[in-house]
Amino acid sequence: DAKTTQPNSMESNEEEPVHLPCNHSTISGTDYIHWYRQLPSQGPEYVIHGLTSNVNNRMASLAIAEDRKSSTLILHRATLRDAAVYYCILRRNSGGYQKVTFGTGTKLQVIP
Amino acid sequence: AAGVIQSPRHLIKEKRETATLKCYPIPRHDTVYWYQQGPGQDPQFLISFYEKMQSDKGSIPDRFSAQQFSDYHSELNMSSLELGDSALYFCASSLGLGGDTDTQYFGPGTRLTVL
Hints:
Strand order of the largest sheet of chain A: 1-9-8-3-4
Order of helices and strands of chain A: EEEEEEEEE
Largest sheet of chain B: 7 strands, mixed
Strand content of chain B: over 45%
Shape of chain B: globular
Number of helices of chain B: 0
Order of helices and strands of chain B: EEEEEEEEEEE
Helix content of chain A: under 10%
Radius of gyration of chain B: 13 Å
Structural class of chain A: mainly beta
Structural class of chain B: mainly beta
Largest sheet of chain A: 5 strands, mixed
Shape of chain A: globular
Number of strands of chain A: 9
Strand content of chain A: over 45%
Radius of gyration of chain A: 13 Å
Helix content of chain B: under 10%
Oligomer: heterodimer
Number of strands of chain B: 11
């Protein structure tokens, strides 16, 4: 799997937007950009994924750079429940049953 | 909505004992993955099954084995347990269709403590 680079940690005030960056300069044309998060003492949780276009769902938005070498996960209004480690992962579209390779991730702290 | 079920949630074993972890995927999901997360570490992929056949293998010790049964549930068998096997073990399931639809849904994990 191609490598991603994320900041080790970030802070945000509650109810403010959060932009979590991810660099993936070696991304290939068939790599999907996935985001997972892991709340304390819980299993990882799927957040969002995309290929080229920006994506929105009930949890977050994903902004993908035009050259696809970077992306940003946007939490529109951070809550205390969003405090977690956020993983940016590239997954190749080469068939099913692909493992998820977790990198270091960004630990998000939400300040009340 | 139904989620991935793992049992037991907590397990305490002595060194050199054996342990069996069970995973029940989301209904209609045919692919199961196992991950190990040591203290302060990120989850590491162990092994996966698609339609009851092993589909991929990661850094799984030879002391560990796993299988997926006809009802798609999976079991991770761990023998000759070592202190270093103490970790959270996550199971995830997916539809296994690949590409855009291959989202993995994780269970709550089994916390294994080896004394």
